What we know:
The protein is α/β, with parallel strands linked by helices. It folds into two domains: 4-15 and 61-194, 3-Layer(aba) Sandwich (Rossmann fold); 17-60, no CATH class. It is built from nine helices and four strands, in the order βααααβααααββα. Strands 2-1-3-4 form a four-stranded parallel sheet, with helices on one face. It is globular and about 50 Å long. The protein starts with a strand and ends in a 9-residue tail after the last helix. Mean pLDDT is 81; it is low at 107-127.
Amino acid sequence: MIDKVVFLDIEGVLLPFTQYRFEHINNGDMAKVYNELYQKFGIDYRQYSVHHIAAVYYDWDKLAIGELKRILDTTGAKIVVSSSWRSENNDRMRDFFRIHDMHEYYADSTLILRNIYDISPYISKLNLNIGNRYQMRFLEISLYLHEHPEITRYVAVDDMDLKGLGEHFVQTSDRLTRELADKCIAILLKEPQDACL
């Protein structure tokens, strides 16, 4: 049962605004990367978009990933991806996280990505005049929490302005830092009665 959750954006949190991947793709480095990953994990990453694999391998920030691991290890929280990356299926996301030895944090019970993503078209059809993607993400997280009352503590880590989540929101500007990770830990370790939306 999940009781603590990190709603995780990828871009601007784990993926800073760097683009080293394009140089490596253009230089033909990906064949070596695919071979290394196959040797390490037994997964043929050529089945996925070269741009996604290069982004995860070259551009995901190792210090930010370390801080995310520290949040999860300290609090026992699980990841629910709230990023646009959630359009990838669960197996792909698990394989992407595996590149940085994070697959163990990404259990099936927290991989209900489509419950968030699939709500968006439904909301649009209701003509609620949701003005922007910030409001949409806030609403998606709110609906996820409504559908999962077992979650008593959560934090949303995002570079978008989700201030509607109040004290459950930690905004990054480029990547997750130690200071921001400390804020996440403090939020997740609050007593449940203090952590409700």
